[in-house]
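User: Second chain of the day. Same drill as before.
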Amino acid sequence: MRKGSWSATVGLVLAACLATGTSLAAEVAAPADKQAPGHHTYMLVLSWEPEFCYLHGDGHPECAAGDRATSFGATHPTLHGLWPQWSSACSLSAKDNDPTWKDRVLPPLSPAVQTTLAQVMPGIASGLALHEWQKHGYCSGLPADQYYSLAGGMVKALGDGKAGALLANATGKGVTRKAVCDALAADFGEAARQSAVLGTGKAAFLTQITFTLKAADDGSTALDAAHLAESPADQPGRCDKGNPDETLKLAAFK
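Assistant: Same format as last time:
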C-alpha cells in the first residue's frame, strides 16, 4: 500500500519533474539480476481513491486537492501500479526500504504520458510514480515511458467500458459483486472472471481491483482477452469466488 512510503515534499518535486520532463538524478545502471521482458506476468493494481483517502489521506496532497470531488478518481478506479511477477526479486525492488530510493531517477516522460498519469494516477502528487517505477516498473525491462503508457492506457480502458460506467453510477452507493464481474466480463471477456480480484476492507467497502495479465514477448501487456491470466485460486475476492450477491460499497468524496 502507499501509506508512509514517501513524503509530500518528494511528491512536489516529482510533480515538477513530470511537468518539465526533467529527471531527478543521473540514470542508474541496470541491476545485475534485472530480467529480460516477456517471461512473466503482471499484476495491474487499481485503487478506489475515495476509500484510500478516507483510510490513509493524512500527508497525501492528492487527498486534500480542492478539485478531488470532480476528478477522474472520484468515480473511477485509479492506477496504483503495474507489477511484474518475477520468480526472484529485482534488486531495486529489494531495496525499497533504502532511504536513498527517493533520489533515484525517474526517466523523463512524454507529454502525452504525463497528461494521462495526471488524470489516472492521483498519487503522483505524493511521489507514487517514482515509487512504482523504482520498485516495479524498472524491473519490467521496459522504458519508463512505455511502461506508464501501457499502465495508464489500461486504466482508461476500464474507465471507458461498461464496468467503468457501472462504478461511476454506483459511487456513494453500492453495487453487487456479480454486477461488477459481469461488466468486466462484457468488457474484457469471460476470462476476467478468473483474472479480476475485487478487494474490500471493513464493511465491504471497495478498496482495489487487480488483474493478472500475461506479458508479450516484448514485455508489453494489455487489459484484454488475449492477455488476461488466471489469478491465484485462493484469492477470496476473485470474481468467480465468494458471494455474487454481496453488495460492495463505493466510498465517495464529500
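The chain has a mean pLDDT of 83.

User: Great, on to the next one.
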